[in-house]
Amino acid sequence: MNNLLITGYRAHELGIYDQKHKGIAYIHKAITSKLIPLIEDGLEWVITPGQYGVDLWACEAVIALKKQYPQLKLSIITAFLNQEEKWKEDKKEYYEGILREVDYYGAVSKQPYIGPWQFAARDDLLLRKTDGILLVYDEDAGEGSPKFMKEKALRKNAVDGYEYIGISAEDIQSMANEESFDTFFE
User: How crowded is the C-beta side of 33, counted as CA atoms within 13 Å?
Assistant: First the structure.
């Protein structure tokens, strides 16, 4: 696999409203644990839609991994220009900091938000340009925006073997439990 799409829940879908939430660290760890074997097998690009939540936390994980794996590249491809325009100031600053670290940034539609077709066009492009997806989504925890991407990825998997890698709430909880266990024995 050369190119991997990473996406998942938006922050508000997880009840996360700022960057200080302790759950973000466990999401980073879960993503990192899935990425390392892929990088060691030749993964070149990680691509995300750059929405506030799992997409940007995945970017943080990749930025950290680039210190150990400098050949790894990171891209944000948004649905439309200036997706952060209506975000609160602290989220905008956070996003701009991540944008400074990416290797490629682009928008599928060269206009501001017009309609939901821009998201569909972005998703279609991202699925065409990648060999697999790492999706942070847990159907057992209730439906959310990643449901639609999972359906598209599984349809593509059935047609051409597109790789699907999932991270569930259980995977993230396992990271938290592992850290608690390690802390207990320090």
Answer: 15
